[in-house]
Amino acid sequence: MTGGDPNRVIEAVWRIEAGRVIAGLARLVGDVGLAEELAQDALVIALEQWPQSGVPDNPGAWLMLTAKHRAIDLLRRRSRYEQKLEEVGRDQERRHADVDAEAALDDPFGDDVLRLLFTACHPILSTEGRLALTLRLLGGLSTEEIARAFLVPEPTVGQRIFRAKRTLSEKQIKIELPPPAEIPARLASVLEVIYLIFNEGYAATAGTDWMRPSLCEDALRLGRILVGLMPKETEVHGLVSLMELQMSRIAARTGPDGEPVLLLDQDRGRWDRLLIRRGLAALDRAESLGTLGPYGLQAALAACHARALAPEETDWERMAALYLVLGHVAPSPVVELNRAVAVSMAYGPARGLEIVEGLRAEKALRDYPQLPAVRGDLLARLGRTAEAGKEFERAAELTRNERERTLFRRRADALQPDK
Length: 419
What we know:
Elements: H1 6-29, H2 32-53, H3 59-77, H4 81-92, H5 101-104, H6 109-120, H7 127-137, H8 143-150, H9 154-170, H10 183-202, E1 206-207, H11 213-229, H12 234-247, H13 273-289, H14 294-306, H15 316-329, H16 333-347, H17 349-357, H18 370-381, H19 385-398, E2 400-401, H20 402-414
Parallel strand pairs: 1-2
Helix pairs in contact: 1-2, 1-3, 1-6, 2-3, 7-9, 7-10, 8-9, 10-11, 10-12, 11-12, 12-13, 12-14, 13-14, 14-15, 15-16, 16-17, 17-18, 18-19, 19-20
GO molecular function, one term: sigma factor activity
Pfam families: DUF6596 (PF20239), Sigma70_r2 (PF04542), Sigma70_r4_2 (PF08281)
Protein name: RNA polymerase sigma factor
Protein backbone atom coordinates (compact mmCIF):
# COMPACT_ATOMS: atom_id res chain seq x y z
CA MET A 1 0.00 0.00 0.00
CA THR A 2 1.58 3.28 -1.08
CA GLY A 3 0.68 6.94 -1.27
CA GLY A 4 -1.42 9.12 1.01
CA ASP A 5 -0.85 10.35 4.55
CA PRO A 6 0.70 7.44 6.53
CA ASN A 7 -1.06 8.46 9.74
CA ARG A 8 -4.46 8.43 8.05
CA VAL A 9 -3.66 5.06 6.49
CA ILE A 10 -2.62 3.72 9.90
CA GLU A 11 -5.87 4.99 11.42
CA ALA A 12 -7.92 3.30 8.68
CA VAL A 13 -6.00 0.04 8.97
CA TRP A 14 -6.37 0.05 12.75
CA ARG A 15 -10.12 0.60 12.53
CA ILE A 16 -10.41 -2.44 10.27
CA GLU A 17 -7.84 -4.75 11.83
CA ALA A 18 -8.01 -3.96 15.56
CA GLY A 19 -10.68 -6.54 16.31
CA ARG A 20 -8.85 -9.35 14.54
CA VAL A 21 -5.49 -8.53 16.13
CA ILE A 22 -6.90 -8.20 19.66
CA ALA A 23 -9.03 -11.32 19.23
CA GLY A 24 -6.04 -13.43 18.20
CA LEU A 25 -3.93 -12.09 21.06
CA ALA A 26 -6.72 -12.60 23.58
CA ARG A 27 -6.88 -16.28 22.82
CA LEU A 28 -3.14 -16.62 23.32
CA VAL A 29 -2.75 -14.60 26.54
CA GLY A 30 -6.23 -15.28 27.94
CA ASP A 31 -6.89 -11.69 28.99
CA VAL A 32 -8.77 -9.01 27.06
CA GLY A 33 -7.01 -6.08 28.73
CA LEU A 34 -3.54 -7.49 28.12
CA ALA A 35 -4.43 -8.36 24.54
CA GLU A 36 -5.46 -4.77 23.88
CA GLU A 37 -2.23 -3.46 25.41
CA LEU A 38 -0.16 -5.71 23.15
CA ALA A 39 -2.15 -4.63 20.09
CA GLN A 40 -1.68 -1.00 21.06
CA ASP A 41 2.06 -1.63 21.31
CA ALA A 42 2.03 -2.82 17.71
CA LEU A 43 0.08 0.28 16.72
CA VAL A 44 2.65 2.54 18.41
CA ILE A 45 5.45 0.78 16.54
CA ALA A 46 3.56 1.32 13.28
CA LEU A 47 3.14 5.01 14.06
CA GLU A 48 6.88 5.25 14.67
CA GLN A 49 8.08 3.25 11.68
CA TRP A 50 5.63 3.60 8.82
CA PRO A 51 6.04 7.35 8.22
CA GLN A 52 9.77 6.67 7.61
CA SER A 53 9.77 3.20 6.05
CA GLY A 54 6.47 3.47 4.22
CA VAL A 55 3.20 1.62 4.74
CA PRO A 56 3.64 -2.15 4.16
CA ASP A 57 1.85 -3.82 1.26
CA ASN A 58 -0.19 -5.81 3.78
CA PRO A 59 -0.47 -3.51 6.81
CA GLY A 60 -2.97 -5.72 8.64
CA ALA A 61 -0.61 -8.70 8.48
CA TRP A 62 2.26 -6.48 9.65
CA LEU A 63 0.29 -5.40 12.73
CA MET A 64 -0.68 -8.98 13.50
CA LEU A 65 2.86 -10.29 13.16
CA THR A 66 4.31 -7.51 15.29
CA ALA A 67 1.69 -8.01 17.97
CA LYS A 68 2.25 -11.79 17.92
CA HIS A 69 5.96 -11.33 18.53
CA ARG A 70 5.25 -8.98 21.43
CA ALA A 71 2.87 -11.53 22.93
CA ILE A 72 5.34 -14.38 22.66
CA ASP A 73 8.11 -12.24 24.14
CA LEU A 74 5.83 -11.40 27.04
CA LEU A 75 4.99 -15.05 27.64
CA ARG A 76 8.66 -15.90 27.65
CA ARG A 77 9.42 -13.15 30.15
CA ARG A 78 6.72 -14.44 32.43
CA SER A 79 8.14 -17.95 32.25
CA ARG A 80 4.85 -19.25 30.95
CA TYR A 81 5.86 -19.77 27.38
CA GLU A 82 6.37 -23.54 27.65
CA GLN A 83 3.10 -23.92 29.53
CA LYS A 84 1.20 -21.96 26.94
CA LEU A 85 2.91 -23.83 24.15
CA GLU A 86 1.80 -27.12 25.65
CA GLU A 87 -1.77 -25.87 26.08
CA VAL A 88 -1.96 -24.69 22.49
CA GLY A 89 -0.44 -27.97 21.34
CA ARG A 90 -3.04 -30.03 23.19
CA ASP A 91 -5.85 -27.96 21.73
CA GLN A 92 -4.55 -28.39 18.21
CA GLU A 93 -3.01 -31.90 18.22
CA ARG A 94 -6.07 -33.51 16.67
CA ARG A 95 -5.48 -31.53 13.50
CA HIS A 96 -1.79 -30.66 13.64
CA ALA A 97 1.14 -32.66 14.94
CA ASP A 98 3.54 -29.76 15.49
CA VAL A 99 2.11 -26.38 16.46
CA ASP A 100 3.83 -23.53 18.20
CA ALA A 101 2.33 -20.51 19.91
CA GLU A 102 2.97 -18.16 17.00
CA ALA A 103 1.23 -20.42 14.50
CA ALA A 104 -1.68 -20.83 16.88
CA LEU A 105 -2.50 -17.17 16.36
CA ASP A 106 -3.20 -17.91 12.71
CA ASP A 107 -6.46 -19.74 13.46
CA PRO A 108 -9.42 -18.81 11.25
CA PHE A 109 -10.34 -15.15 11.52
CA GLY A 110 -13.92 -15.83 12.55
CA ASP A 111 -13.27 -18.05 15.54
CA ASP A 112 -11.24 -15.48 17.42
CA VAL A 113 -13.36 -12.47 16.52
CA LEU A 114 -16.57 -14.27 17.45
CA ARG A 115 -15.12 -15.25 20.84
CA LEU A 116 -14.07 -11.66 21.48
CA LEU A 117 -17.44 -10.28 20.40
CA PHE A 118 -19.32 -12.59 22.78
CA THR A 119 -16.88 -11.69 25.57
CA ALA A 120 -17.13 -7.92 25.06
CA CYS A 121 -20.93 -8.20 25.02
CA HIS A 122 -21.14 -10.52 28.04
CA PRO A 123 -24.38 -9.94 29.99
CA ILE A 124 -22.39 -9.68 33.22
CA LEU A 125 -21.27 -6.22 32.06
CA SER A 126 -23.38 -3.09 32.20
CA THR A 127 -24.95 -1.87 28.96
CA GLU A 128 -22.61 1.13 28.96
CA GLY A 129 -19.63 -1.13 29.56
CA ARG A 130 -20.58 -3.47 26.74
CA LEU A 131 -21.03 -0.59 24.31
CA ALA A 132 -17.71 1.05 25.17
CA LEU A 133 -15.71 -2.19 25.25
CA THR A 134 -17.14 -3.42 21.94
CA LEU A 135 -16.33 -0.16 20.17
CA ARG A 136 -12.85 -0.12 21.70
CA LEU A 137 -11.89 -3.74 21.02
CA LEU A 138 -13.78 -4.54 17.83
CA GLY A 139 -14.50 -1.11 16.40
CA GLY A 140 -10.94 0.17 16.79
CA LEU A 141 -12.21 3.45 18.32
CA SER A 142 -10.14 5.38 20.82
CA THR A 143 -11.55 6.39 24.18
CA GLU A 144 -11.75 9.95 22.89
CA GLU A 145 -13.72 8.89 19.81
CA ILE A 146 -16.19 6.88 21.90
CA ALA A 147 -16.65 9.79 24.30
CA ARG A 148 -17.27 12.18 21.42
CA ALA A 149 -19.74 9.80 19.80
CA PHE A 150 -21.85 9.40 22.94
CA LEU A 151 -21.33 12.95 24.27
CA VAL A 152 -19.91 11.86 27.60
CA PRO A 153 -16.62 12.92 29.23
CA GLU A 154 -13.57 10.97 28.12
CA PRO A 155 -12.70 9.92 31.71
CA THR A 156 -16.19 8.43 32.03
CA VAL A 157 -15.66 6.24 28.98
CA GLY A 158 -12.22 5.29 30.25
CA GLN A 159 -13.73 4.20 33.55
CA ARG A 160 -16.42 2.16 31.79
CA ILE A 161 -13.81 0.32 29.76
CA PHE A 162 -11.58 -0.20 32.81
CA ARG A 163 -14.47 -1.54 34.91
CA ALA A 164 -15.59 -3.84 32.10
CA LYS A 165 -12.12 -5.33 31.73
CA ARG A 166 -11.75 -5.67 35.50
CA THR A 167 -15.12 -7.41 35.78
CA LEU A 168 -14.22 -9.90 33.07
CA SER A 169 -10.94 -10.60 34.87
CA GLU A 170 -12.38 -10.81 38.39
CA LYS A 171 -15.24 -13.05 37.29
CA GLN A 172 -12.77 -15.15 35.33
CA ILE A 173 -14.84 -14.92 32.16
CA LYS A 174 -13.10 -17.03 29.55
CA ILE A 175 -12.62 -15.74 26.05
CA GLU A 176 -14.63 -18.46 24.40
CA LEU A 177 -17.91 -19.16 22.70
CA PRO A 178 -20.76 -19.89 25.09
CA PRO A 179 -22.13 -23.44 25.30
CA PRO A 180 -24.78 -24.15 22.62
CA ALA A 181 -27.61 -23.88 25.15
CA GLU A 182 -26.53 -20.34 26.09
CA ILE A 183 -25.93 -19.01 22.58
CA PRO A 184 -29.49 -17.65 21.96
CA ALA A 185 -29.46 -15.51 25.13
CA ARG A 186 -25.86 -14.43 24.63
CA LEU A 187 -26.44 -13.66 20.96
CA ALA A 188 -29.33 -11.41 21.98
CA SER A 189 -26.87 -9.37 24.05
CA VAL A 190 -24.48 -9.07 21.11
CA LEU A 191 -27.26 -7.95 18.75
CA GLU A 192 -28.54 -5.46 21.33
CA VAL A 193 -25.11 -3.84 21.63
CA ILE A 194 -24.66 -3.56 17.87
CA TYR A 195 -28.11 -2.03 17.40
CA LEU A 196 -27.67 0.39 20.31
CA ILE A 197 -24.50 1.63 18.61
CA PHE A 198 -26.36 1.98 15.31
CA ASN A 199 -29.32 3.78 16.86
CA GLU A 200 -27.15 6.35 18.60
CA GLY A 201 -25.66 7.14 15.22
CA TYR A 202 -28.98 7.15 13.38
CA ALA A 203 -30.89 9.34 15.86
CA ALA A 204 -28.55 10.98 18.35
CA THR A 205 -30.14 11.28 21.78
CA ALA A 206 -28.40 14.57 22.55
CA GLY A 207 -26.11 17.23 21.14
CA THR A 208 -26.13 19.44 18.08
CA ASP A 209 -26.12 16.74 15.39
CA TRP A 210 -29.24 14.97 14.18
CA MET A 211 -27.15 11.92 13.26
CA ARG A 212 -23.63 10.52 13.69
CA PRO A 213 -23.22 8.36 10.57
CA SER A 214 -19.80 7.06 11.60
CA LEU A 215 -21.42 5.13 14.45
CA CYS A 216 -23.90 3.63 11.99
CA GLU A 217 -20.98 2.53 9.84
CA ASP A 218 -19.21 0.94 12.82
CA ALA A 219 -22.35 -0.96 13.81
CA LEU A 220 -23.06 -2.11 10.27
CA ARG A 221 -19.49 -3.34 9.89
CA LEU A 222 -19.84 -5.38 13.11
CA GLY A 223 -23.17 -6.72 11.87
CA ARG A 224 -21.69 -7.80 8.55
CA ILE A 225 -18.83 -9.54 10.35
CA LEU A 226 -21.36 -11.35 12.53
CA VAL A 227 -23.32 -12.50 9.47
CA GLY A 228 -20.16 -14.05 8.09
CA LEU A 229 -19.52 -15.82 11.39
CA MET A 230 -23.08 -16.97 12.10
CA PRO A 231 -24.71 -17.31 8.66
CA LYS A 232 -27.56 -19.55 9.85
CA GLU A 233 -28.90 -17.20 12.53
CA THR A 234 -32.15 -15.60 11.39
CA GLU A 235 -31.92 -12.58 13.68
CA VAL A 236 -28.36 -11.77 12.62
CA HIS A 237 -29.56 -11.39 9.03
CA GLY A 238 -32.59 -9.52 10.33
CA LEU A 239 -30.47 -6.97 12.17
CA VAL A 240 -28.15 -6.43 9.20
CA SER A 241 -31.16 -5.98 6.94
CA LEU A 242 -32.65 -3.43 9.32
CA MET A 243 -29.42 -1.44 9.51
CA GLU A 244 -28.84 -1.55 5.73
CA LEU A 245 -32.37 -0.31 5.03
CA GLN A 246 -32.30 2.44 7.62
CA MET A 247 -28.84 3.55 6.60
CA SER A 248 -30.00 3.84 2.99
CA ARG A 249 -31.94 6.97 4.00
CA ILE A 250 -29.11 8.85 5.72
CA ALA A 251 -28.31 11.23 2.84
CA ALA A 252 -31.96 12.32 2.69
CA ARG A 253 -32.49 12.72 6.46
CA THR A 254 -30.95 16.19 6.69
CA GLY A 255 -31.34 19.40 4.75
CA PRO A 256 -28.65 21.80 3.52
CA ASP A 257 -28.02 23.21 6.99
CA GLY A 258 -28.16 19.88 8.80
CA GLU A 259 -31.79 20.29 9.81
CA PRO A 260 -33.86 17.09 10.16
CA VAL A 261 -36.01 16.00 7.23
CA LEU A 262 -38.79 13.66 8.30
CA LEU A 263 -39.42 10.40 6.48
CA LEU A 264 -42.49 11.46 4.52
CA ASP A 265 -40.75 14.66 3.40
CA GLN A 266 -37.53 13.04 2.20
CA ASP A 267 -36.37 13.02 -1.41
CA ARG A 268 -36.41 9.28 -2.04
CA GLY A 269 -34.21 9.77 -5.05
CA ARG A 270 -31.41 10.34 -2.54
CA TRP A 271 -31.94 7.00 -0.85
CA ASP A 272 -29.05 4.61 -1.46
CA ARG A 273 -30.41 1.95 -3.81
CA LEU A 274 -27.41 -0.35 -3.28
CA LEU A 275 -28.01 -0.42 0.47
CA ILE A 276 -31.70 -1.05 -0.17
CA ARG A 277 -30.91 -4.00 -2.42
CA ARG A 278 -28.54 -5.39 0.16
CA GLY A 279 -31.06 -4.86 2.93
CA LEU A 280 -33.86 -6.58 1.03
CA ALA A 281 -31.55 -9.49 0.16
CA ALA A 282 -30.63 -9.86 3.84
CA LEU A 283 -34.32 -9.84 4.74
CA ASP A 284 -34.96 -12.59 2.17
CA ARG A 285 -32.21 -14.67 3.77
CA ALA A 286 -33.68 -14.12 7.24
CA GLU A 287 -37.12 -15.20 6.04
CA SER A 288 -35.68 -18.29 4.36
CA LEU A 289 -34.06 -19.39 7.63
CA GLY A 290 -37.17 -19.34 9.79
CA THR A 291 -39.67 -17.16 11.64
CA LEU A 292 -38.67 -13.53 11.92
CA GLY A 293 -37.77 -12.23 15.35
CA PRO A 294 -37.83 -8.61 16.57
CA TYR A 295 -35.01 -7.41 14.30
CA GLY A 296 -36.35 -9.24 11.28
CA LEU A 297 -39.82 -7.79 11.86
CA GLN A 298 -38.37 -4.28 12.13
CA ALA A 299 -36.48 -4.94 8.91
CA ALA A 300 -39.76 -5.99 7.25
CA LEU A 301 -41.24 -2.68 8.41
CA ALA A 302 -38.29 -0.74 6.99
CA ALA A 303 -38.71 -2.69 3.74
CA CYS A 304 -42.23 -1.30 3.37
CA HIS A 305 -40.73 2.18 3.14
CA ALA A 306 -37.83 1.04 0.94
CA ARG A 307 -40.16 -0.55 -1.62
CA ALA A 308 -42.35 2.58 -1.90
CA LEU A 309 -41.08 5.03 -4.49
CA ALA A 310 -43.35 7.69 -3.01
CA PRO A 311 -44.92 8.10 0.47
CA GLU A 312 -48.43 7.48 -0.87
CA GLU A 313 -47.32 4.08 -2.21
CA THR A 314 -46.41 2.82 1.27
CA ASP A 315 -48.32 -0.27 2.36
CA TRP A 316 -49.49 1.17 5.68
CA GLU A 317 -51.96 -1.64 6.31
CA ARG A 318 -49.15 -4.18 6.15
CA MET A 319 -47.08 -1.99 8.45
CA ALA A 320 -49.90 -1.79 10.99
CA ALA A 321 -50.19 -5.58 10.91
CA LEU A 322 -46.43 -6.04 11.28
CA TYR A 323 -46.36 -3.71 14.29
CA LEU A 324 -49.13 -5.77 15.85
CA VAL A 325 -47.01 -8.91 15.45
CA LEU A 326 -43.90 -7.12 16.73
CA GLY A 327 -45.88 -5.99 19.77
CA HIS A 328 -46.62 -9.62 20.59
CA VAL A 329 -43.06 -10.81 19.99
CA ALA A 330 -41.34 -7.92 21.76
CA PRO A 331 -43.92 -5.91 23.76
CA SER A 332 -42.94 -2.28 24.19
CA PRO A 333 -44.75 1.06 24.56
CA VAL A 334 -42.49 2.45 21.83
CA VAL A 335 -43.59 -0.30 19.44
CA GLU A 336 -47.21 0.50 20.27
CA LEU A 337 -46.57 4.19 19.62
CA ASN A 338 -45.14 3.36 16.21
CA ARG A 339 -48.13 1.15 15.53
CA ALA A 340 -50.34 4.13 16.25
CA VAL A 341 -48.59 6.06 13.48
CA ALA A 342 -49.04 3.21 10.99
CA VAL A 343 -52.70 2.78 11.98
CA SER A 344 -53.29 6.51 11.54
CA MET A 345 -51.84 6.39 8.03
CA ALA A 346 -53.81 3.28 7.10
CA TYR A 347 -57.14 4.01 8.77
CA GLY A 348 -57.15 7.69 9.72
CA PRO A 349 -55.73 9.89 12.52
CA ALA A 350 -58.66 9.26 14.86
CA ARG A 351 -57.85 5.54 15.02
CA GLY A 352 -54.21 6.30 15.68
CA LEU A 353 -55.07 8.81 18.39
CA GLU A 354 -57.10 6.17 20.25
CA ILE A 355 -53.95 4.09 20.62
CA VAL A 356 -51.85 7.07 21.67
CA GLU A 357 -54.32 8.12 24.35
CA GLY A 358 -53.93 4.69 25.90
CA LEU A 359 -50.17 5.21 26.12
CA ARG A 360 -50.15 8.55 27.93
CA ALA A 361 -50.09 6.87 31.33
CA GLU A 362 -47.11 4.66 30.46
CA LYS A 363 -44.24 5.43 32.84
CA ALA A 364 -41.71 4.36 30.22
CA LEU A 365 -42.95 7.14 27.91
CA ARG A 366 -43.24 9.86 30.53
CA ASP A 367 -40.13 11.70 29.30
CA TYR A 368 -40.11 10.34 25.76
CA PRO A 369 -40.37 13.30 23.36
CA GLN A 370 -41.83 11.23 20.54
CA LEU A 371 -45.05 10.62 22.48
CA PRO A 372 -46.19 14.28 22.47
CA ALA A 373 -44.74 14.69 18.97
CA VAL A 374 -46.88 11.86 17.59
CA ARG A 375 -49.90 13.06 19.52
CA GLY A 376 -49.33 16.58 18.21
CA ASP A 377 -49.17 15.39 14.63
CA LEU A 378 -52.38 13.39 14.97
CA LEU A 379 -54.20 16.30 16.64
CA ALA A 380 -53.04 18.62 13.86
CA ARG A 381 -54.36 16.24 11.22
CA LEU A 382 -57.69 16.26 13.05
CA GLY A 383 -57.79 20.06 13.03
CA ARG A 384 -57.20 20.44 16.78
CA THR A 385 -54.37 22.89 16.20
CA ALA A 386 -54.21 24.57 19.61
CA GLU A 387 -53.84 21.22 21.38
CA ALA A 388 -51.36 20.08 18.77
CA GLY A 389 -49.18 23.14 19.31
CA LYS A 390 -48.95 22.45 23.03
CA GLU A 391 -47.91 18.88 22.35
CA PHE A 392 -45.05 19.99 20.10
CA GLU A 393 -43.96 22.48 22.75
CA ARG A 394 -43.90 19.64 25.24
CA ALA A 395 -41.85 17.53 22.83
CA ALA A 396 -39.36 20.39 22.44
CA GLU A 397 -38.97 20.58 26.21
CA LEU A 398 -38.28 16.86 26.53
CA THR A 399 -35.75 16.25 23.76
CA ARG A 400 -32.03 16.62 24.43
CA ASN A 401 -31.15 16.92 20.75
CA GLU A 402 -30.90 20.52 19.59
CA ARG A 403 -31.83 19.78 15.97
CA GLU A 404 -34.93 17.92 17.07
CA ARG A 405 -35.84 20.68 19.50
CA THR A 406 -35.72 23.23 16.68
CA LEU A 407 -37.93 20.98 14.54
CA PHE A 408 -40.56 20.62 17.26
CA ARG A 409 -40.61 24.35 17.98
CA ARG A 410 -41.13 25.10 14.30
CA ARG A 411 -44.04 22.69 14.25
CA ALA A 412 -45.49 24.40 17.33
CA ASP A 413 -45.04 27.88 15.85
CA ALA A 414 -46.68 26.83 12.59
CA LEU A 415 -49.81 25.85 14.52
CA GLN A 416 -50.21 29.23 16.22
CA PRO A 417 -53.40 31.09 15.15
CA ASP A 418 -51.49 34.10 13.77
CA LYS A 419 -49.11 32.00 11.66
